[in-house]
Amino acid sequence: MAALGALVLVTGGTGASAESGWWVATSTPTPESEVNATGEPMRGTGPGGEVSGFIDAHTHMFMDLGMGGNAVCGSTWSEKGVADALKDCDRHGVSILENLTNSGAGRGPLDAHDTVGWPTFKDWPTYSSFTHQQMYYKWVERAWRGGQRIMVNDMVSNPGLCPILGVIAGPNKYSCDDMDTVRRQIKATYDLQAFIDRQFGGPGKGWYRVVTTPEQAREVVADGKLAVVLGVEVSEPFGCKQVLGAPQCTKADIDRGLDELQGKGVSSMFLCHKFDNALCGVRYDEGTAGLLVNAGQFLTTGTWWNPATCREGEVADNTVIGGVLPSEIASVPGLPAVLPVYPKGPHCNPRGLTELGEYALRGMIKRNMMVELDHMSAKAAGRALDILEAEAYPGALSTHDWLSTAYMDRLYGLGGFATQYGHTATEFATQWRETKPLRDKYGVAYGYGTDMNGFGGTAAPPEDGAKISYPFTGVDGTVFDRQVTGERTWDYNAEGVPHYGLVPDWIESLRTLAGSAIVDDLAAGSESYLQTWGATSDFQPGANLAREAIASASSTEWNLLTDLKPGRAIDGKLSTRWASKYGQDDAWFQVELLSVRPVSKVTIEWESAYARQYRVQTSLDGKQWRDVAVVGSGNGGLDTVKFAPSSARFVRMQGVERATRYGYSIKEFGAFS
C-alpha cells in the first residue's frame, strides 16, 4: 500500500523519440508530459568567454503556492507525476477571478468552465487565463531545450488579493503573509531542483540549477543547463505595509529581512508591487485588473489609490478607473461597493520613495542586490534612479515593461538590464525594432519577461506572417515538434503560448517574422544580464571626498531653532542642511579636500530651495576657479553631475539663478574621484 503513494519511475527519456544523452532523464514519473524536442543542447562559451542563451527575466514558477494557494489551479510538479500535479481543481468550476480576468474566454462572472486538467486539458491552460498552471516543470524543460539558459524565478504573492481569494475561491491553504510565501516558494525551488536531479542520476546532474552568484550562473550556462535566479516580487516585503498612510515596519525590520533574503540566495527584488506600501508608491494597474488590485489595496491598507492629474513635464503612471465593483467582489467583508471617482488622466501617483524606501534601497546597494524598478510609481522610480546614479550603482533592472520609457536611457546608462514583456510575436518584434537604437547605444542585448503564472496573460495566436511550420529547428539545432501532454497536442499557430513549453515555438515565430537578427539579439541576452549582475556583485562604493573635507560658503542663513552652517551639508545626514541668505543668486558653497585629488563627479541633495542654474567649479588654490560643468535646468531633488576628471583641492557649487524666492539649501554635498 505504501508503494501506491511513492514516486513511480520509468527508464528512458520522455518524448516522442527514444533519444538518449546527458540532457535526457534516465528515469521519470509515469505518466508524464512529453518534451517533443530532439538534439543535444548547446554548451560552451565564445572566444572571449561570453555565454549564449535566451533569458526570461520575469517568471512566477510557484504562484500555486502564493496568495493562499487559490490563485493558480495546478502544481508546478509532484512526486506522483503529472496526473497528480495537473489534476482537477476543487471549487474551480466557477472561478470568479478567472472569468473577470480572462477576456479571451468571453464568459460571464458566474459561468462555469471545464476544470479537467490531465489528460484532456479542454479549457486550460490558455494564453488568456491568469488562474491555471502554465509552468509545469516538463514545459519549462522544453523551453530550456529551446535555448533558454537563464530564468529569474520571482517569489510572488499579494496580501490584499489573498483574503479576497480566500472568500471567493477558498478556503485558503496557506498564510497570506508575504514573507511566509517567499520562504515557501524558495524551498519549493530547491525541492524541484532535487526532484529533477534524481531523474538525471543524482545531486548536480539535472538541467535545473539554482544559482546565487553570477559566477555560478555563468558556469551553469556554459554547461548547457538552465540557471535559475531567485527574485522577490511581493507587496509587503518585511511586513512593510502602510495602514491609513502609517508605516507598519521599521529600519530594523528591513535590515533583518534583507539579511534573510541575502542568506537564502535572493539576487533581485521589488520594493513595491501593486499596492502603495511603506516603501514606495506603485505604478497603477489599468482596467478591470486595476479594479481588483485597488480593492485589494483598500482591504489591506484602508486607503484607495489616490491618483492626481499629472502636471506638465511629469512622467505619468497608468490611468486608473473608478466605479462600481462587481457584486461578487463587493461581497467580500470590509469592501464598499463603489470605488472613488478619479480626476481626469493622465494619472500620476503622488506617493514616491519614502524615507524607509530609501533606506531599503540603500540596504540593497550595501548587499549588492539588483533593484527591480518595475511597479514603482514614476515618482518613486525617478528618485530611485537619482540614488543609483549618485552611487554609480549598476544593479538596475526593468524586466516586464512596467518602467516608463522615459527612464530607459538612465537605466542603461547605469549599466542596467531590461527585458520586454512576452507580447504577441508582432508586438514583440515591433517593440524590439523601436528600442534597438537605444540598446545599440549602450551595447546591450535583449531578453523577454513572460510574467508566466503572473496576472498579465501570455502571447496570443500569431498573425499569418508570424505562423510557423512543424517540425522546426531551434537556435542550437534542436528539432521541435508540437508539444504533447496527455491527450492534448498544443499548436502555437492556433493557441499562441498557453504554457511555458511553447516559448520555443514563440521564438521560432519571432524568427519567421523578423529574421535571425532578433534571435541573435535574444541569444546574447544572458551575457548582457550576467554583465549587469557581475558588475553589481563586484560593486564597491566610491569614497566621498567631501565627507572629511572642510566646508565653507558665501553666506549662511541665521535660524533661531537650528544650525544651518556649511558643515551640516557634509555630515552624512539628510536631516541637516546648509542654507544661504535669502535673495542671493550668486551665493556659493564649497569644500576644501584634505589633498589634491582627481574629481569627476559631484552629487547635490537639494532641500526645497534649489538652484535652477549653477556651475560646478574646481580649484587648486581656492583663488583660480575653473568651470567643469554647467547645469542650466535644475529641478531640485538629487543631482548627479559628471565631468572629465579634474585635479582639485577645492570643489564648489557656484549659484547662478535661484528656483525659489529663498536662497540655496543643500542637505548633502558629495565629491568623488
TrEMBL record:
Origin superkingdom: Bacteria
Every F5/8 type C domain range: 538-673
Spans annotated as Disordered: 26-46
Polar residues composition bias: residue spans: 26-36
InterPro entries membership: FA58C, Galactose-bd-like_sf, Metal_Hydrolase
Gene3D superfamilies in alphabetical order: Galactose-binding domain-like (2.60.120.260), Metal-dependent hydrolases (3.20.20.140)
One Pfam family, short name: F5_F8_type_C
Protein name: Discoidin domain-containing protein
